[in-house]
Write a structure and sequence with these properties.
101 residues, mainly alpha, 0% strand
Length: 101
């Protein structure tokens, strides 16, 4: 049985191995939708670029830790969003490319 503490943090001492919450704890925390949301948000371009670069750093760290994972496409998606935002007129390019996905 999991004992819940502040802000829905579980007490690991009381969590059974193989409990149904294991998948939630190891699930990808960055999704394709998250990347698109940052890329097309109303935030200034430099803030979006910083957020995307942070996502890329996290994904690459997780990718190197688990070579068999399927995080490669997410890294490529982040790279594409960074490239579009960094290029001249990138703002319109990112908004147009994500609108058709």
């Amino acid at each position: 049985m999991t004992v819940m503490k502040d802000m829905n943090q579980s007490d690991r001492k009381h969590t059974e191995t193989g409990a149904e919450s294991d998948a939630e704890k190891t699930a990808q925390s960055i999704s394709s939708q998250d990347i698109r949301a940052v890329a097309i948000s109303a935030e200034p371009v430099d803030e979006r670029l910083a957020a995307l670069k942070s996502m890329k750093t996290e994904l690459e760290a997780r990718l190197s830790a688990d070579a068999g994972s399927d995080l490669g496409p997410l890294v490529e998606e982040v790279d594409s969003a960074i490239e579009n935002l960094s290029s001249a007129g990138g703002e319109a390019g990112v908004r147009a490319s994500t609108a058709t996905d």
